[in-house]
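Narrative of activities, Objective 1.

The group set out to show that a structural description can be obtained from nothing but a protein's sequence at a throughput compatible with the screening campaign. Below is one input-output pair from the validation batch, recorded exactly as produced.
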Amino acid sequence: MYQRVLSTPTSPDFCQLTYDESRHWLHATWTGYVSPEYALNGASAGLEMLQQVHCPYLLNDNSQLQGPWFDSLEWLATEWGPAAANAGLRYVAHVAQPNALVSAWLDPASQRLLRQFEIQVFESEAEAVEWLSSCQSKAR
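Output recorded for this entry:
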């Protein structure tokens, strides 16, 4: 298992990135308050891991976040998304922050991101894991 934990004095362990070799997916867990700068750092670190392991599956868990979340869908759609797709990413299971409005997925930048891979939004990690597992079963 390959793991990287991003921390700051004010936001300890705000992003935990784990490549699960047995499942062949990257699991990103975000916790606490994550500033836009830290979110960009975490997303960039996740991209680096995707480029290293070339895995098609990402479980992105925002269920432990507090406060507003990363608002740069434009950057995700134009920079991160194409690079992640080139690294082999095909399926993203996104566990939403509790009580988060998913209307951001209607934004034009979100629509560009959605065309780059298959993304599903879930309320629980268990649902996300089940969906990613089903994607792997179909790919075999």
